[in-house]
Amino acid sequence: MEHQPSPSARQDAPSAKWWQLAFGVLCMAMIANLQYGWTLFVDPIDAKFHWGRAAIQLAFTIFVATETWLVPIETWFVDRYGPRVVVCFGGVMIALSWVLNAHADSLFLLYAAAVIGGIGAGSVYGTCVGNALKWFPDRRGLAAGATAAGFGAGAAVTVVPIAKMIASSGYEQAFLVFGLGQGIIVILLSLLLRKPSVAVPIKRKNLRLPQTKVDRTPRQAVRTPVFWVMYAMFVMVASGGLMAAAQIAPIAHDFKVADVPISLFGLQMAALTFAISLDRIFDGFGRPFFGWVSDNIGRENTMFIAFTIAATACIVMLAYGRNPYVFILATATYFGVFGEIYSLFPATCGDTFGSKFAASNAGLLYTAKGTAAFLVPFASLISAAYGWSAVFGLIIGLNIVAAALAVFVLKPLRRRYLAAEAERYEAMQAEAVRLA
């Protein structure tokens, strides 16, 4: 008898995956300011309370650590119960976080708000990326990149309004207005999210990348050397990007370019505001672009190209960054290639360990961002003791090492792992046929 598809299987129209991708991108855009808008608040908070940049930046580290390290728990719920409830919960938490930031009159309250915001952002981030990997098993690089682009570029359209509101009404009002607005939008979008009714098949005739036929649980994934090589590379590259994201405003002020009026691309604004806006656009564009590139030339090859460009951009910044135009273009270039880690590593993880537990496995790998976040406060300390040249030197070195690991360690290691998995799968299939 011919197998008839179930009603639930028939409800996934061809356009459904694109709608789900769009909803995920919008959710990610709504949480972007939690990370990329933070730099605008650092100096105003310090001017009011005089806690010091390092103490205030610890809140950023706590946020990132909480956002990432709890993702495996949050994605565990996603793999079993779907994305809707988890994202709705995340929307409530991110709104609460910024409301607390608006009223924080102590470091303790600032850090508590960072924990709550991290939980909310992780719930949204891990869910949306994991859901994209399930809907697009044959285009994981593009899907993860497009979803992560929402997080990378989401702050671009709100940087100028936030900066203006901070200047006119105070940073407290900016926290309150944007926090509540973004939280409400995430809650509404969560009602539209869902996982595929049935597992989406891989179109192997169009597939240009090696992928496993065996789904591995998170417990099995963390027992492989491939996972830990990816984890180490993720930490190396993410630490530099997080340092730059958190410190871009202090760097601009120390380089004496923050308030320099700039005319570029027909627009005119202060160099710092211009830089942050352009950084978000390049970051957002780079994530799906490099994801698409990796779908065609391979994950590791794309990593090598991106990490090398990042190191070069930092060298240019270090040498010529006191020119406001160089500052803007060098930071834009850096963030244009930095954000691809949030598309390439989840895609590589899905290729290596399968679709069934894609959200949980990618969530475990994403905790590397939390590990990297602990280097962010040290950037302030290192810059105070040795200058920004030491910070940029560290970022350059980490990117060069990661680029080398991509092609000389990860690529051959993952090839051997997938070959062994394929042999094991074929042996299991042969045994099943024999017993039948």
From TrEMBL:
InterPro entries: MFS, MFS_dom, MFS_trans_sf, Oxa/Form_antiport, Proton-linked_MCT. The chain crosses the membrane at residues 21-42, 54-73, 85-102, 108-129, 141-162, 174-193, 226-248, 260-282, 303-320, 326-345, 385-410. Keywords: Membrane, Transmembrane, Transmembrane helix. Residues 1-414 form the Major facilitator superfamily (MFS) profile domain. PROSITE patterns: MFS (PS50850). GO terms for cellular component: membrane. One of its GO terms (molecular function) is oxalate transmembrane transporter activity. NCBIfam families: oxa_formateAnti (TIGR04259). This is Oxalate/formate MFS antiporter. It comes from Methylorubrum populi.
